Amino acid sequence: MKKQFFTALGFVAFGTFFSACQKEDKPDLVIPTSYTSESYDANITVEKALRSQLTSFANYMKVGDNVANKLVSDSLDYYFSENGATTLKSKTATYYSNLIENTWMNTLVNSSQNSYNPADGATATNGGVFVNRLLDKGGKEIMQEVEKGMYAATLYNHIVALSQGAITQETIDRMICIYGAHPNFPNTNTAANTTTPDTYIALYTARRDKNDGTGLYTKIKQQFLKLQAAVKAGADYDKEKNQALSEVKLLIEKAIMATVVNYTTGAKADLSVAFPTDAKKVGALHALSECVGFIHGFKAIPASQRRITDAQIEDLLDNLLAPIGEDATMYKFVTDSENQLSKIDAVQNSIKSIYGFSSAEMTDFGKNWISEQGR
């Protein structure tokens, strides 16, 4: 009996070993050089609608940039939570949708049709229009905190949600669309060069990519190709599938933060001149407010789905003079540039450390490579 037992046990062990060897000896995943999907247009109806709705929401908020116009709460509510069969609110993480509805919409309405000057920011009781931007009383452009924050809290959040279920060809198509790209991956939004221009996150990623085959846009494309190949290859390639999913999400996060580097670089340059014009002042506050949105939106994402931590987000926003849950004092970047601009350096140094960007990459992020290369 003992002999039979050990023989049977040996057979089971050999079978397990043989099965493991089979898995280890599986062919390498073959990754194509282009992405194809015959049903792409049919698969992305929800995502195309969401992109269009975000544009409409942003365009309505921009109406407040003219001091003659008064924003209306009902209209803001409509564009965010009622427009479309699948609304922006339904795809926005609760943390951010609550801020939009319960805090920022009121600020937009109350600030509109007023005038504002950052020179009076220390004593301002309400926001208003400075040059051609609607700012709150602290000099923060709320519209940008809403819209750019939704790049993470809505668009990236949708990718995260899709990644939690079964991954099919349709799932990948939807991810590519809500990212803002197309299966052609043109790496540009220039109409003369493509009929499928990049938009939203993909556009900002393209601007940070030197088009040399090593940039963030190219890497995201490669991971989508790997993801598609792994899904087509079946369950034996689940490891590769999961790796690609993780890389897509991390690279998108990096691309958004690379744009923070770009905008903070431009804002610091505009405010570092001896006598910045009002146009440069408002341009800098606009750019820094976009950065606030890009960063703050990630606070809405589960910690397991992002590299940046809550503490790091809070630190970055503190340095941008836009602390969470407190009044912004971003006007100080204009009124006290000598003492405040070093905080922009702190923001960039933190981002470099968090994401492991090289000094060369940080320098490159300061440019719009679509414009630089005329592509």
Write a concise synopsis of the structure shown.
This protein is mostly helical. Helices cover 62% and strands 2% of the residues. The protein is built from 18 helices and two strands.
Feature tags:
single chain, mainly alpha, 18 helices, 2% strand
Written overview of the protein:
The protein is mainly α. Helix content is 62%, strand content 2%. It has one domain (37-373). The chain has helices at 2-24, 40-43, 45-62, 73-81, 88-91, 94-111, 142-163, 169-179, 200-207, 216-233, 238-271, 278-296, 310-319, 332-335, 337-340, 342-355, 359-365, 369-373, and strands at residues 128-130, 133-135. Strands 1-2 form a two-stranded antiparallel ribbon. The N and C termini lie far apart (77 Å). Mean pLDDT is 94; it is low at 1-22.
The helix/strand series, from N terminus to C terminus, equals HHHHHHEEHHHHHHHHHHHH
Instruction: Give the C-alpha Rg.
Output: 24 Å
Quick check: average pLDDT? 94
Q: What portion of residues is helical? A: 55-70%
Helix count?
A: 18
Shape: globular
Q: What is the count of structural domains?
A: 1
Point out poorly predicted stretches.
1-22
Distance between the termini: 77 Å
Tell me the β content.
Answer: under 5%
* Major sheet strand order: 1-2
Write the layout of secondary structure elements.
Elements: H1 2-24, H2 40-43, H3 45-62, H4 73-81, H5 88-91, H6 94-111, E1 128-130, E2 133-135, H7 142-163, H8 169-179, H9 200-207, H10 216-233, H11 238-271, H12 278-296, H13 310-319, H14 332-335, H15 337-340, H16 342-355, H17 359-365, H18 369-373
Antiparallel strand pairs: 1-2
Helix pairs in contact: 3-4, 3-8, 6-7, 7-8, 7-11, 7-12, 9-11, 10-11, 11-12, 11-16, 13-16
